[in-house]
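Two proteins, back to back. First:
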Amino acid sequence: MKIIPFKIPKTEKDSFLLQEDHVSHFYDKLHQHSEVQLTLMLKSEGTLIAGDFIGSFYVDDLYLIGSNLPHVFKNEDRFYQNGKTEAHMISVFFDKESFGKDFLLLPETAGIRSFIYGLTNCYKITGETAERIKQKMLQLFKLEGFDRMLHLLSIINLMATSTEIVKLSNFKASKSYDASEGKRMNDILTFSIKQFHRKITIEEIAQVANMTPEAFCRYFKVCTRKTYLNFLNEIRITNACKLLINKDLTIAEISANSGFNNLSNFNRIFKKVTGLTPSLYLLKSQLQKARKE
């Protein structure tokens, strides 16, 4: 496996791409493309990895993924087991060339020009902005030609002027990965997601990367701007958050199921990653769910 550099296909009639994925599970290889990606989850859940961000995604989530940022929407295991088309999302792919070379140089487009050129990370769109964009995205798929382009511009302008966009990653993808580097990072990622529930030593993960422990630690820190232990703990806490919300388990059971053998250590790391204790995180999630209902 490698971080696959995608070329987003567009016809001669289109300057940007609309894509609907309605499948048993989403494409599960870490990949990147030069286009910005705006994605709405219609039916699915799993783990999003984008740059140095690791977190859960759910139905109705709306994400904006910057140019060349390595990312993957990895579904839960159950999506691979039943063969049903339960994973459903719609996406818009666009870049600074989508509206012509000179369009973004106009004085009237200064706001969206600055916004588009600054999209290098992963973002989650929230609040009223998200609700408005969701409706506009669904409408976008019903339009054609000039009306479709105007509709996309209105979406971009809405995002550019919103204060409800949360930056999730701090990873600036300044280059495309070559095949060997991409394979190494994908192997590390895949192994970590599958094995996080148990103890993983630096020696073991270094062997997966085909490196010495010392070289691996340096390499991983340069690539992700974090230590491997911090990365692994974020995967574990992401799993713990899902269990807190969806399973009737004690905090001690969730700690053990997420790869921690010490409850106090689990509580400390949980608060470090999320900013909340497990109990407060659960309460906040329950209140948010009640408001939606």
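And the second protein:
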Amino acid sequence: MTIMKAFAYLSLGLILFTITQSGLAEQQFSFNYQDNDYFLDEGVLWRTEADGGQQFRVNTQVITVKAAARSDAAQISSFLHNNKLKLLRTAITGYSDIELNSNANYREVLFTLKNSGLFSVVESNTYGKYLFVPNDSQYPAQWHLPQVSAEAAWDLTAGSTSVAVAVLDSGVEFSHSDLGTGADNYNNIWINPGEDAWSDPGNPNTGNGIDDDNNGFVDDWKGWDFDNNDNNGSGAFFHGTAVAGVLAAKTNNSNGVAGVAGGNNSPGISIMIGNVGNNAPNGAVLDDAILYAAANGARIIQMSLSVGNSQALDDAIVEAYVNQGLLVINAAGNGGTANVSYPASLANVMAIGASDQNDMKVGFSQFGPDLEVSAPGVAITTTDLNNNYLSTAGTSFSAPLTSGVAALVMSRQPSLSNVQVRSILHDSADKVGGYDYNHDANNPGHSLEMGFGRVNALAAIQLADSMAGPQVIFANGFEAIPDLIFANGFE
């Protein structure tokens, strides 16, 4: 993200502080900041959330701030310089990421920034977690697709390239033959139309070194790695590639697996890659990735992660959902508790739970009043790194399945708003499992265990048609998909 000129018109008297330098292991063992407890464990700083008690590892290299209205740019710049702090980037929401010196006393820097008077917001950042459950058992069929009536939905649409879904995760292997270009000579990876192509489509280092579309990201032809601040979004951890496969692995191409919105031996929806951390999501860059998705034409933001609470992230999601009209979807969490994880708990985010082959809530799936819908989340066969496949489990995979259904609805009826599509997913979900869907008179049709029910792709599209009117010409140019026979022998 480019550094904005927001500091240029800020005003405040010069404040200079000298921040004592020391190693993290020498710092105070525990402290409280903004109602969250911080503690050291074997030299690693952790944050315990005041809301729910979840613990996240703190990113001790970056603190996020928002300049006070009365602050002055030159004075802030001088303050940062004198305290050996570096401004990394500033978002359009006004939040700036500040990099600490490698041997800085984190606690001291945090409180010095807070007490300086220069900033209205000073918050720590955390490394979160991707919401999957490892499962070594390999299953020969993708049971989750017929469970949500995907095949019948594909008679109406299998996804349009005009619908971009931003997968904010551990990166996506864009060279995977079931996601990127393979023997079938097409791909479902989003290509930035404003950026010149890499001379080698598989090598991010072969770009022209120019920010052709002036969006602040050089050679982001296939998205961006926000954690490493470069244009190689492929990532080295399986999670994002697996999520992308559930969403939009190429369908009916005689290879591998099928995604919910993967097309019909032709491109489906577009997977916009936003790598927000290989082994764990980096909360310091998640807001930047969300704003990138909104600025570059995504219709849906797909997340399967949890991080510590962040005002910068809250405001980025408001910008995306309220101001830019994106649908924001996040996994509910795998802790089995009666509350969904953050940021799924936010009002502008759809929280997705996990169901099993019997349409029951999976034991690990977090639930409660903020849960919106559920989708299959166990024994999910999908794409893996190194052009492979795996079976896995978690609400991490229920979320992209739901994102895929939402993308089908938007492909079929592109004029529908994010609010309308969200309502459609609620109203078209199947009331399965025998749960109490009338537990709250103020929220009829909702259950604590499954939300408004298990998603149904066909019913969602049919409801969308009834609201907007059916299309005679389908977005992807075909009316029906024949029975799908894959290379691994299942339908």
